[in-house]
Amino acid sequence: MKSILKNWHRYLLWLVVSFFFWAWIFTLITDAPAQKKLVLYADCPAMEREALDAELEKAMPEGIRFVEARVFSDEMFSPTNLTSGDLFILSSQQIDRYLPNCLPLDEAAFPDRLLYTAEGAAYGVCVYDESRGVAIGTKYVAYIPGETYYLFFNANSPHLGEWNGSADDAAIAAAGAFLALP
Prior knowledge:
alpha+beta, two-stranded antiparallel ribbon, 9 strands, 28% helix
């Protein structure tokens, strides 16, 4: 018993090393490379992530393993991950910060939608604006009342097809599926 108590720090070290090793293995098994998953980041206080993931996965083309919706606050310790997403739902307060990462969109792909324009180009599609009666996906996304939110596309996304020369257009399909939500 004395030898066990005398070496407690070694057992604790092995426990910590083992935890990180198995966490790394779990991440390798459950995650997918960027070409096989679609990530949507939302600048909102809360989100029904699993339900939104399932809803958006219904519109995914072959080759996409899963959709992952995340709230900006989830990335508090890894803010660089935010710029690696495919789609962004941004409040009007965050647009200037993230607009340099966004790709101008093809306005014809979103007819009859309110668009966010900057420098003569359309960048985002309005998804929430109380004053204009726009409220898309409120079952899944908790928007802040009084704020206006837009859906943007990451210029470096591997899922924008002809818009940026990538292999598939899964982000555009996911945007269409999101915009069809009540």
